[in-house]
Structures are given as structure tokens and as C-alpha cells.
Q: What sequence folds into this?
């Protein structure tokens, strides 16, 4: 490179640095400028021999990231300095994290250290989705150290996405996919809507370039017409607002390319049929006391001139989103019969919408309640710190809760709680407190008793009913939708399983002793292989609940004593290594080995259809054929759509379950001589058996004799037999029979 080129580059670097100081959202003191200058000098020294793929000096990247942090996100001088230094420790040998701490203090060093850890996570080559999910989870753990770590990382990702043209195509797709998978949802949750939209649009540019360019071209093509329409629409509102002496600005806002694409796919429409491709934003000046009053005054002015769609009114001023977002959204019928979205925001609300976290703290009142972002981080921390949660499950649930729309419900005392759309009364219980969730036995919504699966709506008042004897069961996972509730239920079920397994281990030790077999590591491994299980915990659990009984253990003992059988087994165990696909299939089959149909989860005869060959674990449904009984199809089977649309009345819901977790309905009839306290004794015996659930009970007494009908949920026949034996021992009971 020529000296002249390098000189020009140095002038450009100095210009970029000066611009950074000029565009900062927060007012920088002399002390702040000194800190930023020092960080710039260290970054310049650290990256002096480095160049980006495009050939430009590397220092342009940290300056650009710091500029996004300063201007678009609006963070303070500490964050700007950390953004300038974010790659120094990782990319050069001159400085380590101790040097950064000595030069800039503990806070900057902590943020830089967090950013360095995240970068080293994402360097994994050919990352599969589970590894990516695990890394995402580790990355989120840095939230607790300092939320600014994640925010600067989002800014870093945005600049990388903006300057990705010189990369290999496969690398572009990988980074763009990761952006959609992780960074866009995070930006959304932290309230950085502008950055979220830009990340999504840029990701679409690399993952589906043809679609992106097609929509971009159509937007440009129709821009002139749209600008004219917005001008015509705005003129009417301007005249009305001027009469009322408002201090305001009106902006036209086109919908992002990604959201137009999402709407086209979701609604199955063409570009021209997406009706709200643009919105009008009215930003008015107001003091805090009159903000709400003026917003509704503007609403009345807009709706005086244009007819509103009452179904599309969104009031996020009275109930702000958990991201801190406040605004009034009105959809009105504009000229030429077109729907137009009008967003009404004060200057303060607009800054919070554009800057998110930073502006929220600028305007935060001293007496304000704990910030929603802080409480969200605290709740997130609980889920993150549970080591047993599967990383992919966690990320999927987490993303679900990031993007989901919100509903607002009330506690019995009138406190407002926000939950994701689709949340149930059980989710509400866990949202109040984990302990309340664990002890939930029911809920009242608007004064009426509802099941735990009841889906809540905005405006509901919810009261949770608890009981000391209540505890989570496997069905609760069908009712819970939020990540918090699901992770707590899963860990409670695991604990329950461990307790049963501990009892099962002792039972197994006794039973094997009678068969002259010692319970040790070898015999446990043999039993696990013999019963085709995955772990010793599965073995002990199945013995504990009685699904592995004496007969099965005797057949194991006899096969064990057969030397030839042992020899064959040892030969089989030396077969070639199983492929990952086979292993996954075996795992699924052992986990989900039974198929049940309908709401009652009945076991029925069925055949697997040849068109899609479903395997255990697939999402499936049953189809009642004329001559072949029930045929099971995958939900994404090529024939599924036509079957569901033409023969909806023949479709049965179906799902795979782990047969050891399934509960069966059993009916027993009890008869004998009536005496005081008998019903109490019967219910006592049933409720003391931890693996049996009583669904209903009815007793009739006639001339000193009684008959009782009891419906129970049991896991298997062994448990039922044990219960029947115990009921027979109650004084006064003559007969106990299963129907």
C-alpha cells in the first residue's frame, strides 16, 4: 500500500473518531471524552497490523460498533469505550484482560471480558444447532454480569451484517441464519426495534436474496406513489393538529422487507395484497403529566377524519409492553379505501422505542417500580441456571417468549401482570411465584372455576387455588406454555422420578437377592441392556413403579444363566458402531414407545401409513379409513392437507408417549357392610398411594350394605393390584373388583 493511501486512511480514521463524539446520544463530559480517547488509542494500537476481509483497516469496525452504541442505542461513555475495545483482548497479544482493568477500571474490563467470551463461543466450526443453542445459553448468562455486554454484541453483529459483502457465500448464510435465530429476537426483547428490523432485513438479504431483491425493487417502484399518498393523508391531520396548537412532527414509516415477507407467507398473499405496507408516526412534545391526555386527544382528532378499525386499536400507553415500549396504535381507513396504521408517541416514548434500554433509564423516575427488563433478566437467570434443561428446548421456549404478543391479566388484588399470548392459568401461577405454581390445584378466572389448561385473555382476573398436597405431574407440561413454568415442572418431575428410583433400587436389590444375583455395576448394566433402557435411573424407576415385575426379573435371571445366550449377547455388543441417525431413532423409540388417540388418550389398534412412514416421536394424527381401521400419518405428510380439508370428521388427534409415564383409567367397585368413617378410610388408603390419582368416587348405602364406584388413574396393573389388596384389608369391606 502506498504512503499516500495510508495517509488518506489515517485522515478517514480521525474523521470517523470525531464523528463518534459528535453523534453521541448522551451528553459527554470532558472526563467521558478523555476515557473514549484513551480507549480509541489502545484500540488503534491493538489493531494496527490488522485488516478486514474488505481490505480496510480493522479499526474502522470497532469505531462503527461504538458509533451504533453511541448514536442508535444511546449508551454511556463506559459502553462506548468498551465497544472500541471489544476485540482488543481476543485479536491481539499486546493486551490481556488484566491490562484493560488497570487502564480502564473494573466495569469496562468486565464488559470486554464478557464480549471476549461470547466471541470465543461463536468461533466453533460447523456448529450444529444443539451446540449453537448451548452457546446461546452461555451467552445469555453474561446478561447477569452486565446487560451492556449483550447490547454491544448486538451492535457488533449489526455492523458485521452491514459489511458482509466480501465474505464467502456459505459464511454469509451461516451468519445471517444465526442472526435470525439469536440476535434479532434479543434486540426485540431489549426494545431495539429499529436494529431488530435492520438485522432481519439484512439476514433475509443473504438467506433469500431473490425474495429480498424482489420486495426491495417493488418498494422502490411504488415509493413515489406511496409518498404522495402519505402526504395527502398527513395533510388532513396536520391541519387539524395545527388548529389545536400541537408541537409535533409527522413521519411516514415503510414496513420492513422482512415483515412484508412474513405477512406474504403467513397470509398467502402477494406483495400488492399486503395492505399495511406503511405507517404514519405522530411524535408530539409534552411534559410527563399531560402525555396520556394529549395522546388520546390526538386519537380523537385522527378518528374524527378517518374511520378507525376498533379491532386494531393497541393501547400500550396505559399498559406498556414488558420491553418498556409505549405508544397508541390506530388503524384507520384512509383515502382510496386503504388501511393506514397511525402510531401516536410522545418524544419520550419515541426515544424509548428507538433506543430501548438506554432511553428507559434516562427517563426512569426515582419512585418507579423495578424495571421490567431487570425482572425479565432475573426470571431468565432462573431458567438459565437449571443445568438439566435441554439447551435446544430452552432456546426454542425462550425465542417463543421473546417474540410472542402479550396479554395483560389482573391478580385478585388488582395488580397487572403481563404474560405471553396463549398463556394458561398454570403459567399465571408460576409467574406469581414458583412455590405457588408447584402447589397449584386449580384456578378461578373472573370468579369461575377453570382447569389449569384454561387459556387466559387480556382483562381476566385470575385467582390461583393452592394445596399443600398438590404437586406437578406429567400432564402439566401439556398445559404450560412459558419457559419459566415448563423448566420448573420438568425439574420437579425429575426430582419425583429420582425419589421413586431410590425406592426402586432397594426393591430391586431385595428381589435380585432372592434370585441369587448381587446388585452391582455389572448386573445393573446387564439389566439395562436386557430391558433395552438407556440409564440405570430408568431401570430403578421402572422397578419402583412396578412396570418391571418379578416375572420379568425371573426371565432375566434364566437368560443370564444361559452361557450360550451370554456369548451371543457379547458378540452382538461388538457389532459395528451405530450411526447417529440410528442412535437418535433408538432414543426416540425408547422414550416414546406407545401411541394414544383422542382427548381421552386411548390405546387403539392402528396401522402406520406407507405414504409418510411415521416413526415414534413424530408429530402425527389418526385417520379413520373405511376398510383398514385407523391409519397414522405425520402432520407434515404430503396427503395431510387434503385429508384434513376433505375428511375433517374422520381425523383423530394422536401422540406418542412414554408408556411408563402414561396413566390409565381404571374403575373399581367396592362393597361391604356400611359403618361410620368407612369412606374416609377408603380415600385415605387411595391418597396415601403416591402413584395413584383418584378421579371420582360415589357411594350408595342400602339397609346397612354399601356399594362404591371409584375411578382411578394408575400407571400399570401392578399398582392397581397392590391398591386392591390394601382396600380389601379395610374393616367392613367384603369385595373389591375391577370393572
A:
Amino acid at each position: 500500500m502506498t504512503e499516500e493511501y495510508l495517509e488518506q486512511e489515517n485522515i478517514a480514521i480521525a474523521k470517523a473518531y470525531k464523528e463518534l463524539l459528535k453523534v453521541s446520544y448522551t451528553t459527554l463530559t470532558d472526563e467521558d471524552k478523555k476515557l473514549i480517547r484513551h480507549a480509541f488509542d489502545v484500540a488503534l494500537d491493538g489493531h494496527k497490523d490488522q485488516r478486514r476481509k474488505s481490505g480496510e483497516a480493522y479499526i474502522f469496525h470497532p469505531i462503527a460498533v461504538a458509533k451504533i452504541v453511541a448514536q442508535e442505542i444511546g449508551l454511556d461513555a463506559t459502553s462506548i469505550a468498551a465497544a472500541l475495545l471489544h476485540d482488543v483482548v481476543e485479536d491481539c497479544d499486546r493486551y490481556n484482560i488484566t491490562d484493560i482493568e488497570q487502564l480502564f477500571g473494573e466495569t469496562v474490563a468486565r464488559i470486554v471480558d464478557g464480549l471476549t467470551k461470547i466471541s470465543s463461543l461463536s468461533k466453533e466450526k460447523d456448529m450444529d444447532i444443539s451446540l449453537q443453542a448451548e452457546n446461546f445459553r452461555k451467552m445469555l448468562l453474561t446478561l447477569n454480569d452486565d446487560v451492556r455486554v449483550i447490547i454491544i454484541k448486538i451492535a457488533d453483529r449489526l455492523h458485521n451484517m452491514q459489511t458482509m459483502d466480501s465474505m464467502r457465500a456459505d459464511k454469509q448464510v451461516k451468519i445471517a441464519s444465526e442472526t435470525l435465530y439469536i440476535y434479532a429476537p434479543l434486540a426485540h426483547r431489549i426494545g431495539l426495534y429499529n436494529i431488530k428490523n435492520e438485522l432481519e432485513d439484512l439476514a433475509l438479504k443473504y438467506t433469500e436474496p431473490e425474495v429480498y431483491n424482489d420486495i426491495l425493487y417493488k418498494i422502490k417502484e411504488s415509493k413515489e406513489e406511496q409518498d404522495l399518498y402519505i402526504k395527502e393523508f398527513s395533510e388532513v391531520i396536520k391541519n387539524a393538529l395545527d388548529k389545536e396548537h400541537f408541537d409535533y412532527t409527522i413521519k411516514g414509516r415503510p414496513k420492513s422487507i422482512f415483515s412484508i415477507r412474513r405477512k406474504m407467507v403467513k397470509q398467502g398473499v402477494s406483495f400488492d395484497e399486503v395492505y399495511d405496507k406503511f405507517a404514519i408516526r405522530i411524535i408530539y412534545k409534552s411534559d410527563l403529566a399531560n402525555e396520556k391526555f394529549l395522546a388520546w386527544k390526538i386519537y380523537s382528532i385522527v378518528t374524527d377524519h378517518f374511520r378507525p378499525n376498533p379491532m386494531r386499536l393497541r393501547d400500550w400507553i396505559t399498559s406498556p409492553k414488558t420491553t418498556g415500549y409505549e405508544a397508541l396504535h390506530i388503524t384507520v381507513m384512509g383515502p382510496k379505501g386503504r388501511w393506514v396504521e397511525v402510531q401516536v408517541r410522545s418524544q419520550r416514548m419515541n426515544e424509548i422505542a428507538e433506543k430501548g434500554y438506554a432511553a428507559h433509564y434516562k427517563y426512569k423516575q426515582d419512585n418507579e417500580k423495578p424495571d421490567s427488563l431487570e425482572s425479565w433478566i432475573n426470571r431468565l437467570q432462573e431458567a438459565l441456571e437449571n443445568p438439566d434443561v435441554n439447551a435446544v428446548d430452552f432456546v426454542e421456549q425462550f425465542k417463543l417468549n421473546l417474540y410472542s404478543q402479550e396479554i395483560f391479566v389482573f391478580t385478585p388484588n388488582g395488580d397487572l401482570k403481563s404474560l405471553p399470548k396463549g398463556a394458561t392459568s398454570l403459567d399465571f401461577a408460576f409467574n406469581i411465584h414458583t412455590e405457588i405454581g408447584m402447589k397449584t390445584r386449580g384456578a378461578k378466572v373472573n370468579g369461575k372455576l377453570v382447569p389449569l389448561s384454561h387459556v387466559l385473555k387480556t382483562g381476566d382476573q385470575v385467582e390461583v387455588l393452592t394445596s399443600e398436597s398438590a404437586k406437578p405431574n406429567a400432564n402439566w407440561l401439556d398445559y404450560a406454555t412459558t419457559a419459566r413454568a415448563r423448566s420448573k415442572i420438568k425439574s420437579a418431575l425429575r426430582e419425583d422420578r429420582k425419589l421413586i428410583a431410590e425406592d426402586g433400587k432397594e426393591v430391586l436389590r431385595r428381589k435380585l437377592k432372592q434370585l441369587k444375583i448381587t446388585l452391582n455395576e455389572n448386573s445393573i448394566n446387564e439389566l439395562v441392556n436386557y430391558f433395552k433402557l438407556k440409564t440405570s435411573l430408568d431401570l430403578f424407576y421402572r422397578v419402583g413403579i412396578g412396570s418391571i415385575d418379578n416375572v420379568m426379573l425371573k426371565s432375566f435371571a434364566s437368560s443370564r444363566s444361559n452361557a450360550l445366550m451370554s456369548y451371543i449377547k457379547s458378540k452382538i455388543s461388538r457389532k459395528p458402531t451405530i450411526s447417529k441417525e440410528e442412535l437418535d431413532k433408538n432414543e426416540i423409540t425408547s422414550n416414546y414407545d406407545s401411541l394414544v388417540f383422542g382427548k381421552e388418550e386411548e390405546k387403539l389398534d392402528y396401522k402406520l401409513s406407507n405414504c409418510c412412514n411415521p416413526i415414534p416421536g413424530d408429530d402425527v394424527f389418526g385417520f379413520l379409513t373405511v376398510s383398514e381401521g385407523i391409519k397414522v400419518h405425520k402432520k407434515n405428510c404430503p396427503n395431510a392437507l387434503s385429508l384434513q380439508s376433505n375428511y375433517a370428521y374422520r381425523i383423530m388427534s394422536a401422540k406418542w408417549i412414554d408408556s411408563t409415564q402414561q396413566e390409565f383409567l381404571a374403575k373399581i367397585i367396592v362393597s361391604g357392610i356400611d359403618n361410620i368413617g368407612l369412606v374416609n378410610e377408603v380415600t385415605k388408603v387411595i391418597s396415601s398411594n403416591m402413584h395413584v390419582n383418584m378421579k371420582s368416587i360415589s357411594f350408595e348405602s342400602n339397609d346397612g350394605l354399601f356399594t362404591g364406584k371409584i375411578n382411578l388413574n394408575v400407571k400399570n396393573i401392578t399398582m392397581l393390584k397392590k391398591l386392591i389388596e390394601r382396600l380389601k384389608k379395610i374393616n367392613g369391606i367384603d369385595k373389591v373388583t375391577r370393572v
Notes: The CA atoms of residues 533 and 705 lie 48 Å apart. Residues 483-514 form the longest helix (32 residues). The chain has 31 helices and 20 strands. Residues 216-360 form a domain with the Beta Polymerase; domain 2 fold (CATH 3.30.460.10).
